Amino acid sequence: MAFLYIALTGFAIAIALQSSWKRSHDPLHPTFLFAFPSIAVYIAQPTWLVLSDYTRFHSYLDPNQFQQVALLNLIGLISLFAGSNGPNSAEPVSAGRQFARDHRGLRLISVFLGVTSIIGYLYCIHSVGGFSEAYGRGKGGGWSDIGYVRETPWLSIPATTLMAISNRKLGWKEYLWIATFSFPLLFHGLVGGRRGFIAAGFLTIAISRWLATGRRPRVFRLSIFAIALGILLLAVVANRKQTSLVHGVSLDRGLKSYAVVSSSGTEYIYGGAVMLASQAQNIHFYGKRYLTVVFIRPVPSQIWPQKYQFASEFLSIPNLAAKGSNLGTGELDFASTVGFHASVGAAPGLVADLYLEFWYFYVFALFAVGRSYWFAWHRAMLGNHFWGTAYIVMAALSIYLILQTLEAMLFRFLFATGFVFITWFAMEQRLPNLDFTITSDNRTKA
């Protein structure tokens, strides 16, 4: 029965893809963004795990538990894809005309954000003793006690995006800026073994240029791109403990990692365990974790050192900053429900994360996530430069959304787009002679 639910999941995704293609003929539609990682985690991963080692997989999730998890994932993904297939309320602007004019204002914002990103990244590297110290071991990187400084590499996404959409035809200077701004994401991802950074870097470059030029990849080519990126991410995860500046980029382990071997850290198994334990112990947070993420987390710890402790006591939730908390999932008693202990640092995936948060109301939360992506895409297609930037940030972070948690995507999105909005507004006020308009001259009726 579990594989019937998995097959139905694949069928539901196929229907969603067909529907979005019929309405938009745009492979940059959010349904396509969700489809590839969803197929990887909710269809390919459990199928591979069971077929490669049936006994090992069922030592974590027995057949009845597997069936229950597959059903909950099916219902959740139907809601997500239903949300991403919004109504056709307007005919999109021709993508090639959205950003056809030379936009000096966008380039200026891009340079400011990009330079800020580079400076913040280099400061974190300098704080630990330079590149040799930062990346002299597997899964290395820089550090700063100031959270906003640690997050500055994510400004590379809007910086790259704004440079890419500043004109339909870019010169060598613009491409040099794009390469420079992408450095923190791609270098940290490849040498530091961070799959999210790699995916964000490549998706930002590809989608922003596809959006700006009006050229769309054929679905077959997009599929090849997604598969190649997926293989790269698997290789990086499998070999990140052996990859460093000292040893170089290692591929000795091939693609063998927790993602393709049954373990307590595998996304499908861990996510399933989260849902089962949450259901058995009747533990749900009903939005309180996300109130903490949106309203408490942005306050610097230097100003409010006990902010997470306050949120824990005031909202009656786990301390989200505690070691092993895993955004609250680590507080569940896995052993009494599924017979194994939680893997520290593991991610449950979007469906399990929202099931833990909202119980059966997770279907509405997933629908809202899908509709939010559709809204941003739709506004971008109408020629809105700000929403074009916001959508590309959302697209670049979509791997965090599907494979990890909404929190992993949401805070980075709010940080990057908030910084863009503030910078945009400040420059528009101080430099009135430059064009900072956020919408194209080729808008259609909404």
Automatic annotation (TrEMBL):
Report whether Transmembrane helix shows up as a keyword of the record: yes
Tell me which domain of life the UniProt entry assigns to the organism this sequence originates from: Bacteria
Residue ranges spanning the membrane: these are: 32-54, 66-85, 105-124, 175-191, 219-238, 358-374, 386-403, 409-427
Transmembrane keyword on record: yes
Identify the keywords attached in UniProt to this record, alphabetized: Membrane, Transmembrane, Transmembrane helix
Query: What is the name listed in the Swiss-Prot or TrEMBL entry for this protein?
Result: Oligosaccharide repeat unit polymerase
Q: From what organism does this protein derive?
A: Rhodopirellula baltica (strain DSM 10527 / NCIMB 13988 / SH1)
